[in-house]
Design goal:
The chain is built from nine helices and seven strands. By secondary structure, the chain is an alpha/beta fold. The chain has a seven-stranded parallel β-sheet with strand order 3-2-1-4-5-6-7, sandwiched between helices. Helix 3 packs parallel to helix 4. Bound molecules: nicotinamide-adenine-dinucleotide.
């Protein structure tokens, strides 16, 4: 399969799942725009490394996904760099864990903005380009928490359910055009976002790392294995393929059986 000549922009892609998806799309020949809120030498070095490993054109574009105008500017700058936006992957996300009565209001606002509202802004800005080009793929990285809930993750669960709903609306509004929109719902993937939860959980339950991974993190993941960033890249590639042309407005769970429970 080749996506040669297509342009993909992936929000929150200087690490973890976003970078894994970017790597897969670059391997398939896409021009790639990487993004995060920072603008460091390391960020640009990640883009240069991906370009030299794959032969793809890769740029790094700084934009803070908590700010609507910057979400829209990311799309404009991608078009400035490559002349088009064919594939939009809404992936940027953060987490905070606390009971509702103790949940800091500013964390709630940040999670709703970055994990959910950013997808509204980028999609709104990208759709006119996709319509003009006559082809488009929007893939929203939701979560198993877009389909089910866990305690202490109110903002994250609300935002991810919102992303699943937004994906359905986007799909319906583009249903008669050569544009699709779907949400991927990963279970646990061992990325910096998950890694950062391990030390506190070890302390909280007085457990070693292996026990925390098996009994706490993967408790609800029946496969007892993490999904990988490469697997998620493969799922995005499938949703961008001709075989997926009639797949729109749905969710693809990559969760080792979690949501079958
Ligand atoms: P990660 O921390 O490695 O990646 C998050 C990315 O978002 C980073 O590139 C970070 O720089 C970026 N980001 C954070 N705030 C931003 C902002 N204001 N503006 C722009 N970029 C910003 O975590 P990850 O696990 O790779 O998470 C990626 C996505 O996958 C998130 O939406 C997350 O909710 C989702 N997800 C992760 C898992 C998992 O187990 N890791 C499971 C389900 C869903």
């Amino acid at each position: 399969m080749s996506l040669s000549g297509k342009t993909a922009v992936i929000t929150g892609s200087n690490s973890g799942i976003g970078l894994g998806i970017a790597a897969e799309l670059a391997k398939l020949g896409c021009n790639v725009a990487l993004n995060s809120f920072s603008d460091t030498k390391e960020d640009h070095a990640i883009a240069d490394k991906l370009a030299s490993e794959t032969g793809a054109k890769v740029v790094y574009i700084q934009a803070d996904m908590s700010k609507g105008d910057q979400c829209r500017a990311l799309i404009d700058k991608t078009v400035d760099a490559f002349g088009a936006v064919d594939i939009l992957i809404n992936n940027a996300g953060i987490q905070h864990v606390a009971g509702i009565d103790e949940f800091p209001a500013e964390k709630w606002d940040a999670i709703i903005a970055i994990n959910m509202s950013s997808s509204f802004h980028t999609t709104a800005a990208a759709l006119p380009h996709m319509r003009k080009q006559g082809w488009g793929r929007v893939v929203n990285i939701a979560s198993a928490h877009g389909l089910t809930a866990s305690p202490f993750k109110s903002a994250y669960v609300a935002a991810k359910h919102g992303v699943v709903g937004l994906s359905k609306v986007t799909a319906l509004e583009t249903a008669q055009e050569p544009i699709t929109c779907n949400a991927i719902c990963p279970g646990y993937v061992l990325t910096p976002l998950v890694e950062s939860q391990i030390p506190d959980t070890m302390k909280k339950y007085d457990m070693d790392r292996e026990t925390v991974i098996r009994d706490i993190l993967l408790e609800r993941q029946p496969s007892k294995q993490f999904a990988t960033t490469e697997q998620l890249g493969g799922c995005v590639a499938f949703l961008c393929s001709d075989a997926a042309e009639q797949i729109t407005g749905t969710t693809l769970s990559v969760d080792g059986g979690w949501t079958a429970l």
